[in-house]
Design a protein that fits this description.
The protein is of the alpha/beta class and 249 residues long. It contains 7 helices and 11 strands. It binds fructose -6-phosphate.
């Protein structure tokens, strides 16, 4: 089912697999239409199926990543790239090592940086120098965060170093040996960085995100629900499964 809110198009797909196929088609269309696209990537469980589909398209010769520039949304801080829970490791493991991407064009905030603030400023500068993000892929946290922009009193601006919410640390503990190993900080593109992307594809699945998804797309625009900022963007495609989309009508 497809719904059109004007600036936000919503695909409500039967299941996670269909969501992943639909989202991969949107990414492939972007790259095939503009082979030197600047693509913003996300980590987490949600986009893993889409990355599998993109790998399939690449192996089938239907999609080439050779011209793209990649910028990831976020990274824990501090964290070693060699740590299997780093987003650097995640991206190589789930996508970059399996497709014909130019390794010199991969950008992820540096979790090993000595000066977090300087790294954030440099990262934002690299995005700008690339011409800006053509297509940003987003997942959404249980609390409505996008990137690691947690609920707050004001929307964040550019790439910054944030303290993770207790709820995010608990949600992400599933990937670590214990909750105590989850870094308490992260480097993340800010809401403004995300909003400057020319197109956004938001992926959300599962019943437990149904209410926050409805609040994000149909509720008040408030920094307490960071994803609600997307209502102010001109070109968002939300691809969700029917569990997540159950309150979208
Ligand atoms: C990941 C990111 C986060 C996740 C969100 C959902 O780069 O920026 O906003 O998209 O935490 O994570 P999952 O998909 O694991 O539920």
């Amino acid at each position: 089912m497809k719904k059109d809110l004007g600036n936000i198009k919503i695909y409500i797909m039967d299941d996670y697999e269909q969501m992943s196929v639909q989202a991969s088609a949107i990414v492939a269309e972007q790259i095939n239409g503009k082979p030197d696209s600047v693509i913003g990537f996300a980590t987490g469980s949600t986009p893993v199926g889409m990355y599998k589909e993109l790998i399939k398209l690449n192996k089938a010769g239907k999609l080439s990543f050779s011209g793209i520039i990649a910028f990831n949304l976020d990274e824990y801080f501090p964290i070693k790239k060699s740590n299997a829970q780093s987003y650097d490791y995640f991206m190589k493991d789930n996508l970059f090592n399996h497709v014909n991407i130019d390794k010199s064009k991969l950008n992820i905030p540096d979790g090993e940086a000595t000066d977090a603030q300087a790294e954030c400023i440099a990262y934002e500068g690299k995005i700008k120098a690339s011409g800006g993000i053509d297509l940003q892929i987003l997942g959404m946290g249980n609390n409505g965060h996008i990137g690691f922009n947690e609920p707050a009193d004001a929307f964040t601006n550019m790439t910054n170093c944030i303290t993770l919410d207790k709820s995010t640390i608990e949600a992400n503990a599933r990937f670590f040996q214990s909750v105590n190993e989850v870094p308490i900080k992260a480097l993340t593109m800010g809401i403004k960085t995300i909003m400057l992307a020319r197109k956004i594809v938001l992926l959300v699945n599962g019943e437990k995100k149904a209410k926050i998804l409805k609040d994000s797309l149909l509720g008040n625009i408030t920094p307490k629900v960071p994803a609600s900022a997307l209502q102010l963007h001109q070109n968002v495609v939300a691809v969700v499964d029917k569990e997540a989309g159950k309150y979208l009508g």
